[in-house]
Amino acid sequence: MKKIILLMSLAIAGISCDDDIRADHNFTTSPKIVGFTSPLSTVSYFADEGPVERTFPLSLIGGGDGKPFSVPTEVSYTIDPASSATEGVEFDFVNNNGKIVIPAGMTFGNFPIFVNTGDLNPTQKTELILNLTAVSNGAVVSANHAKLRIIFVGCQSQVAGTYVVTVTRNDGVVRTYTPEIISSPAVNDFKTSTTGQWAAGSIAPDTGYNFTDICGDITMPNQNLAQGFYSNTVTGTDFYPGGNDGKVYSLNNFQTKYEISFAAGPRQYTNNYVR
Fold it and tell me: Domain of life of the organism in this record (predicted)?
């Protein structure tokens, strides 16, 4: 009899414990979260190729049960008033209903536009900025992935060439290097010969750093010193107007400013290139 009572007590305790687990863990799933896959996309054309369709993805980035949408899901968007590109000039909408559809059974959808390649501004970049506002079927917009900037570029950079570069470190130490060869591995993308206080080939086979020039505004991707030969990071400082890492002042002069990490603390370098 005692054994029966003991077994009944254990069973009741097990049920009680199971109820506690259910109380402590809410098994209902959170809403699915959608947003743009990338916050920035550059569209570059330097000749009139006619209207070209380009697409920009948004996707399911979290929440829910991890499964694709079971029904078509509409994501609403608005055009940010800060946009400088104009419908009918740089671009045309494929449809202008203000919605992007993620098809049933899929985890992503595309925002399509026609790029009017012959009408991009040849002297300055323009932007179309989209803001996601709402999602159907109980999903929500990710606050960190709600904005997309499409940058239209019709100006082809002429920065590549041979320069004299003067490098000033933040403690006042100055170095001058010549010839400083600026190469162009891709349109509007460039690589220097030197970085910081190190001449070409002095500490690694390639001591250059990478940057991009879009209509005179220079940006630098986060990168490792000497094309990854060292783990020290080389990072732009957003010193120039518009939060850029450098500026092209003329056909024969541009500047950059970046920071290199060291164990003792970072150093900043201002670089003036003249040809």
Answer: Bacteria
